[in-house]
Design goal:
- It is a single chain.
- With 108 residues, this protein is mainly α.
- The chain has a single domain, classed as Cytochrome Bc1 Complex, Chain D, domain 2 (Orthogonal Bundle).
- Helices cover 38% and strands 0% of the residues.
- It contains 5 helices and no strands.
- Helix 1 crosses helix 5 and helix 3 crosses helix 5.
- The longest helix has 15 residues.
- 24% of the residues are buried.
Length: 108
């Protein structure tokens, strides 16, 4: 995917999610360095669905790509308000953007 195009796709996600760790969580969890984290367990975010809290998977680029196709189907009962990103190219771009931004260091 293309991270620059992914940044544009992420624009619709910004109403709930941040990628700058200094901003904390929004209506959704902060997605900075999301890869390698256990789903539903980000400290300080208290609004995960019961289903996501019970999940035992770790976010990988491949898993997030698949999950974003249809979050409601992937995790029934999810509190995520988006219908996901059904377009495969846009999903790949979004995951590439999240990978890129997760490598950034932010000054405190």
């Amino acid at each position: 995917g293309d991270p620059e195009r992914g940044r544009l796709v992420f624009a619709s996600c910004r109403s709930c999610h941040y990628t700058d760790p200094r901003l904390g969580h929004g209506n959704g969890p902060n997605l900075h360095r999301i890869f390698g984290k256990i789903a539903g367990k980000q400290p300080g975010f208290d609004y995960y669905s019961v289903q996501l809290q019970a999940a035992e998977f770790v976010w990988t680029p491949q898993l997030l790509y698949a999950w974003l196709e249809n979050p409601m189907q992937a995790t029934p009962g999810t509190t995520m308000m988006s219908n996901g990103v059904p377009d495969p190219g846009q999903r790949a771009d979004l995951v590439a953007y999240l990978q890129q931004v997760s490598m950034l260091e932010f000054a405190p």
